[in-house]
Amino acid sequence: MRDFLLIGGGQIVSLIGSALTGFAMGVWVYEQTGSVTRFSLIYISALLPAILISPLAGALTDRWNRGRVIILSDIGAALSTVVIAILLLNNRLEIWHICLLNALNSVFRAFQGPAFSAAITLLVPERHLGRANGMTQTGRAIARLLSPVLAGVLLGTIGLYGIIVIDFATFVMALIPLIFVRIPDVTPDPGRKTGKKSLFHEAMYGWRYITEQSGLFGLLIFFTIANFFAGLAGVLFTPLILSFTSASVLGIILSTGSIGMLAGGLTMSIWGGPKRHIYGIFSSALGIGLCILSAGLHTYAPLFAVAAFFYYFGIPIINSCNHVIFQKKIPPDVQGRAFAMIGAIVGSSLPLAYLVAGPLVDHVFEPLMAPDGLLAGSMGQLIGTGPGRGIGLMFIIMGGFIILATLAAYSFSSLRGIEGDSEK
Q1: Could you tell me the pTM of the whole model?
Q2: What InterPro entries does the record point to (predicted)?
Q3: Where do the domains of the chain lie, and which CATH numbers do they carry?
């Protein structure tokens, strides 16, 4: 675990620096333009390129040493940060600069993510994979918890330029362990002829490998569906809370959720997950579904805080258990392609969720739950009517779908028994 802790620790520090810059950059763009559309473009430009290029990035990752891929990705991200700093220092930073550099950063992440996930398998004994993935999730929770608070304070003291300098320093800290710790090369299995006909052929091999294993394919489909509904809940969480309380209460509830995420990551880091990790996925998914459903039933802020805590508590557990299963079931020489394909498919559910959330709320559910809406006399008697109650109804439906999807996934023996000793 020593080598993993050195590399993983550096990556977590870098993640915190990137989260600070991302948060501060969003605030800067909104303050400069006052445009929600341009504010959204910053996040879209950071998300879509990675999804589009991931399959090819995974194929290249499997061709190269994973450590070198992570180093080059970190250097590329650091250089793009330097460019932003130079433009800002010369008062020439514009929105299109940020979008372009965000897109470049997204490409580097498309390489870094699969390489790091595949490197964990090479660095960590199989019995500790759950703990290692839990530590990675803990790092993300720390970044989520600290970045809004720290960025808000730092913006008022050292400004955006100072935050970018800190981000660059964290990139350097992430590179140092990678220079001294070598991630082993992977020898392809001679019994499996993937061929090198073309980069596209190799990229698609990750998809074919997953689809040929019914359990892995079922897990991918289930995870994508759950991620879509969780994405809908994530993007609508803020407007739902603001429909009945203040922004300060929203901040408290979101902070409570971040604490829950940190607690879940620490739990996985110490515990490592259940013996059958698929049960960790099913139980966490059921809990997440119940939290989303319960959030739609009421407008009582303390109960929202409890739901947010347990919702985010389950996310590191379900993510860690999911990673462990894929790391155990997929050969190391295929993991770059497989993780890239998984990231592209699961990741594509989020832009879709963001795309449909607004129209569904504005044109379907909010009108249904208006005081004179079609459902005012039925569901309105249970959850109330007026602003935000249409979103509440969506939460009930989304939570119900996640619960039903989990029960349906459990009914498939190939998925339930994915880790061996398949149950009939």
Answers
A1: 0.81
A2: MFS, MFS_dom, MFS_trans_sf
A3: 1-180 (1.20.1250.20), 198-419 (1.20.1250.20)
